[in-house]
Design brief:
This protein is an alpha/beta fold and about 290 residues long. The chain has a single domain, classed as Orthogonal Bundle (Phenylalanine Hydroxylase), CATH 1.10.800.10. The protein is built from 13 helices and seven strands. It has helices at about 30-45, 55-60, 75-85, 95-105, 130-140, 145-160, 165-175, 190-195, 200-205, 215-220, 240-245, 250-260, 285; strands spanning about 85-90, 110, 180-185, 185-190, 210-215, 235, 275-280. The strands form two sheets. The chain has a five-stranded mixed β-sheet with strand order 4-3-6-5-7. Strands 1-2 form a two-stranded parallel ribbon. The protein is globular, with a radius of gyration of 18 Å. 7,8-dihydrobiopterin binds near residues 127 and 169.
């Protein structure tokens, strides 16, 4: 399965505002829900130093995210707004693309309010508060990454008008969710889908299975992705500045037209022109056991 999209109703569910936000109702979280956050937080914050981009750890620190329990979005937003002008608001789950993009373009990050159950500790389909807040919010404290996310939202709205949403969805997937970044000779994690996953934090950097390829905008926009297992290919950026410059500072309309006739690239393919950091053996995908 790849590029699959859940279909969502066009209007928000009962209890949600027109922009799909809901109150976080922080005082309604149970001790068990806070304990689940603490358990996930401890596991990830123990393994990420040396694996994640230093800006991510800086974000955890300046946002005081090691405070026990599920963060209060109001408190978190106060700190974040002071740093980069972003805020975090609660939503029931996935929201429609246009709603999602509009929030990003307004420097608002929408986060699931619910937390996974104990039997979902390693995998769940919808983004919960741990993925959204632990995974995404630390880098929103970084000024360059914060600008990238806003520009992404604006680009997303334009892509809808141009019928090219799938191109931008791939860019998001292979940067914001599953991106790697170069740090001298080493690779580090910056994607939220990796940073919030214990298994993928090991797999993405250390496993011989996946390809690790230098980021190229057109290459990424042509590449399919998997939503049901670890990625078969990760793309490596040189810096957040380079990412911002190479992507969202450019007019995508001519690019979309050029890509109209270009075939999609499979999730595991290596193609001409790839800057290969590691050629994956794909043993994990070939074994066919989802993570
Ligand atoms: N909704 N809550 C939520 N979180 C997302 O990450 C999200 C979404 N709706 C749409 C969406 N992402 C995608 O369109 C983007 O990944 C491109
Ligand atoms: Fe995410």
């Amino acid at each position: 399965m790849s590029d699959a999209k859940a279909t969502l109703p066009a209007t928000p569910p009962p209890g949600a505002a027109a922009d799909w936000t809901i109150p976080q109702a922080w005082s309604d979280y149970t001790p068990a829900e806070h304990a689940m956050w603490d358990r996930l937080f401890e596991r990830q914050s123990a393994m990420l130093p040396g694996r994640v981009v230093p800006a991510f750890l800086d974000g955890l620190d300046v946002l005081r995210m090691s405070k026990p329990g599920i963060p209060d979005f109001g408190e978190l937003s106060e700190r974040l707004t002071g740093l980069t002008g972003w805020k975090v608001v609660a939503v029931p789950g996935l929201v429609p693309d246009d709603v999602f993009f509009r929030h990003l373009a307004n420097r608002t990050f929408v986060a699931g309010r619910f937390i996974r159950r104990p039997d979902q500790i390693d995998y769940l389909e919808e983004p919960d508060v741990f993925h959204d807040v632990f995974g995404h919010v630390p880098l929103l404290a970084n000024p360059v990454f914060a600008d990238y996310m806003q520009a992404y939202g604006a680009g997303g709205l334009r892509s809808l008008e141009l019928g090219a949403m799938h191109r931008l969805a791939r860019l998001y997937w292979y940067t914001v969710e599953f991106g790697l970044i170069r740090d001298g000779d080493a690779l580090r994690i910056y994607g939220a889908g990796i940073a919030s996953s214990h298994g993928e934090s090991l797999f993405a950097l250390d496993d011989p299975s996946p390809n690790r390829i230098g980021f190229d905008l057109q290459r990424v926009m042509r590449t399919r992705y998997r939503i049901d297992d670890y990625q078969q290919t990760y793309f490596v950026i040189d810096s957040f500045e380079a990412l911002l410059r190479e992507t969202l500072d450019t007019d995508f309309a001519p690019l979309y037209r050029a890509l109209d006739t270009a075939p999609d690239i499979a999730t595991d393919a290596i193609v001409e022109g790839d800057r290969i950091f590691h050629r994956g053996c794909q043993a994990h995908a070939l074994a066919g056991k989802p993570a």
